[in-house]
Design brief:
It holds the Pfam family p450. The protein is of the alpha+beta class. The chain has one domain: Cytochrome P450 (Cytochrome p450), CATH 1.10.630. The strands form 4 sheets. The protein has a 6-stranded mixed sheet with strand order 1-2-3-9-6-4, with helices on one face. Helix 1 crosses helix 2. The longest helix is centred in the middle third of the chain and has 26 residues. The protein is globular, with a radius of gyration of 22 Å. About 40% of the residues are buried. The mean pLDDT is about 90.
Length: about 450
């Protein structure tokens, strides 16, 4: 019987150097090789690249109990501790259960107004023909949104400092993830010192907000922080401050940097595709954004704006790679894999499959007119899937669509000349390398 696992033709050293030099290009280049591609690494820790939606579903959904996140989790724990993104098995299920109410539909509807308010504040500050660093601008915007929606906290003067601290932690984490040798955070390298300083900056805000919430819990009732303060562990005791800190740090990093990166790519995609930008403006003109309708009602009336975000997430998924490791030998779809096997799943590469997405490299939001059911379940999965799929995916979509529509009503953004084509930079999430200076043009 034919195997669905093929060996990569290049050598182990060539693979290592190729991935280190250009992770995204390396992963895309393996796409036509086969459904599961063996990198021919150590027999004790074999590594595979997964290109088939069928195998992705087996790993993330059908047999997800047989897998752990592994190395990536160990690195992320240095910053965010044992939060929802890094906890495993029973602890993860328990945390997900107590955090789910944060993303119930009624709560998301109330968050919508905050998203629009914060975005309008930004729009009022933009000056026509004055370039803005789009990545930093979107980072500060989404940081302000996450602080208000999740922590019931207004960030003012410290917003830029906190956004910079988030950026530092992400850069240092990415360097560690791709390094063959992981030095303990206690080793006083320049990178580790910078990382620890950034963590202290974020923790200072987090513990300050926790203290304020304990003094006046009634003010924080409708926030994630209020929910965490009300939550009891399995023994009936309140959650320790350290666990609340871990969940807040998780939301800070996973909950706003990803959306900020996606927005940077959305503005770039619209600039590169004037027809898409024109169709978006036509949709916005047809919807009254100034009447009595709530922000959530507005969101539901913007199908094309949603498609712009969906297409952005197809081409530039913030979670560009998902890592999994087997805890024991596993059989999937007739193929056997030993214990301690590692699997690299790249939404970035899989979303570029020409057999699924015609003209896959092109930014064409209208391809989502037909809905997600037009493709295999895991041919498009920007939020992962299964028990570890992004808990905040619905909020993230709403946030991105409302930021897009609020700003696009008033401005179009044009890149400052001389920057060339935007190049993806695969850090913890996918951003535009060196950022993007863009000029707001008032409509």
């Amino acid at each position: 019987m034919a195997t669905r696992v093929v060996d990569i033709p290049s050598s182990r050293m060539a693979n290592f150097l190729g991935f280190q030099r250009d992770p995204l290009g390396f992963l895309v280049d393996t796409l036509p090789l086969g459904e599961v591609v063996s990198l021919r690494t150590s027999a004790f820790r074999p590594t595979f690249i997964v290109n088939s939606p069928d195998f992705v579903q087996e790993i993330l959904v059908t047999q997800d109990a047989a897998f752990r996140k592994g190395r990536s989790t160990n690195v992320l724990r240095r910053t965010i501790g044992e939060g929802l993104l890094t906890s495993e098995h029973h602890t993860h299920r328990q945390q997900k259960r107590y955090l789910m109410p944060v993303f119930y539909k009624e709560r998301i509807q109330s968050y919508a107004n905050i998203v629009v308010e914060e975005t309008e504040k930004l729009a009022d500050q933009l000056r026509e023909d004055v370039p803005v660093p789009m990545h930093e601008t979107m980072m500060q915007l989404t940081l302000g949104i996450i602080a208000r929606t999740m922590f019931h906290t207004e960030l003012a003067e410290e917003k830029a400092e906190l956004a910079e601290a988030v950026d530092d932690t992400i850069r240092q984490t990415a360097k560690t993830l791709f390094s063959p040798l992981i030095l303990p955070l206690a080793v006083p390298t320049a990178g580790n010192r910078k990382h620890k300083k950034a963590i202290r900056t974020l923790e200072r805000m987090v513990y300050d907000v926790i203290a304020k919430a304990k003094e006046r819990p009634e003010v924080y009732t409708d926030s994630m922080l209020g929910l965490l303060l009300d939550t009891k562990d399995e023994s009936g005791e309140p959650l320790p401050d350290e666990e609340i800190r871990d969940q807040m740090m998780t939301m800070l990093l996973a909950g706003h940097e990803t959306t900020a990166n996606a927005m940077g790519w959305a503005w770039y995609g619209l600039e590169q595709n004037p027809e898409a930008a024109e169709r978006l403006r036509a949709e916005l003109a047809s919807v009254d954004g100034t009447g009595d309708a709530s922000a959530y009602d507005l969101y539901r009336e913007l199908p094309y704006a949603k498609q712009v975000i969906q297409e952005t997430l197809r081409l530039y998924p913030p979670a560009w790679m998902i890592l999994r490791e087997t805890e024991q030998a596993v059989e999937m779809l007739g193929e056997s894999f030993p214990a301690n096997s590692s699997f690299l799943i790249s939404p970035y590469a899989i979303h570029r499959n020409e057999h699924v997405f015609a003209d896959a490299a092109a930014f064409r939001p209208e391809r989502f007119d037909q809905g997600l059911n037009a493709w295999p379940r895991f041919a498009y999965f920007p939020f992962g899937g299964g028990s570890r799929g992004c808990i905040g995916s619905q909020f993230a979509m709403l946030e991105a669509v409302l930021i897009l529509s609020t700003l696009a009503r008033r401005f179009k953004f044009v890149s400052v000349e001389g920057q060339g084509t935007a190049i993806p930079e695969p850090l913890v999430s996918l951003r535009i390398k060196n950022g993007r200076e863009m000029v707001p043009i008032r409509l």
